[in-house]
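Bumping my old thread because nobody answered last time. Still need a sequence for this structure:
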């Protein structure tokens, strides 16, 4: 009758306990499972005060620069600054909608669209400030009316002012997007940043009806932007239901 052997008994790989590593059983190192994230998603930190001050100084310089422009440059800005601003902001709105269609675009094109969305947004706001500076310097609207949205007796000027502030709000929430990147703040971000849709619509009305009559190609460009944006909004709404 053989005695029982006291010691470590070999355990088949299929019966090995969960805490036994693959190296002890098979001679190979078992892959390490990735850490499970339990906290809120990571986000970029807010811009530093120096960057904020520099951005505000740049925006003020662009606004003043539009008012100080002269000669051929002022003539060009008088005719085209508002058009360029609205076209660029329209592209920013459409690209922003495209980045939200996760089931349509793969990750890499969505990343490219996000960068283009921000670039056209900054470009549009820059030309919008140039447009305001030129209009105020040319005496077409008073500075207080442009800043407050009333006092000129023209409701279309008020629409333009409203659009400007809503686009500035979109830029500010975009810069501080990382602060909103939690479940608690994502809905306020969508509401505040999404106010740019209202700003864009009022800007289109302002651009088509205020000042000189727009050229045919400008009207056509606005019509294409309206159609594309409406189609993207409908598609996005249908995917949520």
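Sorry it took so long. Here it is:
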């Amino acid at each position: 009758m053989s005695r029982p052997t006291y010691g470590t008994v070999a355990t088949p790989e299929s019966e090995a306990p969960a805490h036994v590593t693959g190296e002890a059983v098979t001679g190979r190192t078992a892959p390490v499972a990735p850490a499970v994230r339990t906290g809120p998603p990571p986000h970029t930190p807010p811009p530093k005060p120096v960057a904020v001050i520099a951005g505000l100084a740049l925006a003020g310089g662009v606004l003043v620069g539009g008012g100080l422009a002269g000669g051929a440059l002022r003539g060009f800005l008088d005719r085209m600054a508002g058009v360029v601003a609205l076209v660029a902001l329209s592209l920013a709105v459409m690209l922003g909608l495209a980045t939200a269609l996760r089931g349509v675009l793969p990750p890499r094109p969505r990343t490219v669209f996000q960068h283009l969305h921000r670039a056209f947004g900054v470009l549009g706001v820059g030309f919008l400030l140039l447009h305001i500076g030129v209009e105020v310097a040319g005496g077409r609207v008073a500075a207080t009316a442009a800043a407050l949205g009333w006092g000129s007796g023209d409701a279309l000027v008020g629409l333009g002012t409203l659009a400007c502030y809503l686009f500035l709000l979109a830029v500010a929430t975009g810069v501080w997007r990382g602060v909103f990147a939690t479940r608690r703040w994502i809905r306020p971000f969508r509401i505040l940043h999404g106010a740019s849709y209202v700003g864009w619509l009022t800007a289109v009305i302002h651009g088509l009806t205020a000042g000189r009559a727009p050229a045919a190609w400008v009207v056509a460009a606005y019509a294409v932007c309206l159609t594309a944006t409406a189609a993207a909004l409908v598609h996005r709404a249908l995917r949520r239901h």
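The helical segments are 22-26, 49-68, 71-100, 107-137, 143-148, 155-175, 186-209, 216-240. Let me know if any region looks off to you.
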